[in-house]
Amino acid sequence: MSPAAARILTIVAASALAFDGTALLGLGVWKGRVGAILAGVVFLVSSGLVLFYWRWYRRRLEDLAAARRALSDEAREIQRLLRER
Questions:
Q1: Are 47 and 18 in contact (CB under 8 A)?
Q2: Burial class of residue 21 (count of CB atoms within 10 Å of its CB; 0-12, 13-18, 19+)
Q3: Can you point out the beta strands (E) in the chain?
Q4: Model pTM greater than 0.85?
Q5: Residue ranges per domain, the chain?
Q6: N or C terminus: fewer CB in 10 A for the chain?
Q7: Residue 43 near residue 50, CB atoms below 8 Å
Q8: What would the mean pLDDT of 22-39 be, rounded to a whole number?
Q9: Distance linking the first and last C-alpha atoms of the chain
Q10: Contact, 78 vs 70, CB < 8 A?
Q11: 3 state DSSP class of 4
């Protein structure tokens, strides 16, 4: 999956959770329902966690890409050394 598509899907998921959380929270406050208020808060926190996890995931992918580049450079250096023999 391309980074742009992953970004769009993450934003859509976080937005949907935030909208649902806000609607539930508002409805819970308006109707005086504690369960709806708690569900709204859970949805809003989940929205934040989706964004937090996505940023963490992107950093891990960048770390993996850097490690792959380093390994590739090292393999090329070993091949060069073997050819010189």
A1: yes
A2: buried
A3: none
A4: no
A5: 3-84
A6: C
A7: no
A8: 94
A9: 43
A10: no
A11: helix
Residue with tokens 């250096």: 77
Using the 8-state DSSP alphabet, how is residue 1 labeled?
-
> What's CA 18's distance to the chain center, in Å?
15
Q: How many CB atoms within 10 Å of residue 13?
A: 15
Long-range contacts of 1-5 (CB under 8 A, 24+ apart): 3/58
The two tokens of residue 72 are 């590739």
Instruction: Give the containing element (helix H, strand E) for 32.
Output: none
Contact assessment for residue 44 and residue 20, using Cβ atoms and an 8 Å cutoff = no
Check whether 2 has a pLDDT greater than 90. Answer: no
36-58: pLDDT as tens digits = 999 999 999 999 999 999 999 89
Please give the Cα distance from 55 to 44 (Å, whole number).
17
Q: Residue type at 16? A: A
